[in-house]
Amino acid sequence: MTNLELHAAPAPADLDGDLASLRGDCARMVPHWAAPEKITSRPVSPSLIHGVNVPARSARLLEAMPDYGN
Fold this sequence. Notes:
By secondary structure, this protein is an all-alpha fold. The protein contains two helices and no strands.
């Protein structure tokens, strides 16, 4: 005979949570994050910086966002 035990589905995630819920989520994730011992960054010569190429698709996406495009 088959066991047909049913379980309740988990509650949907709150996508419009407040800062307190975000901080709580981050606190629960801390044990899963590994930080490097030390990050050393060296300055980049301006002659090596030639510009940024942004794919048209990404540019259109940002342009459509009120915070960036309007």
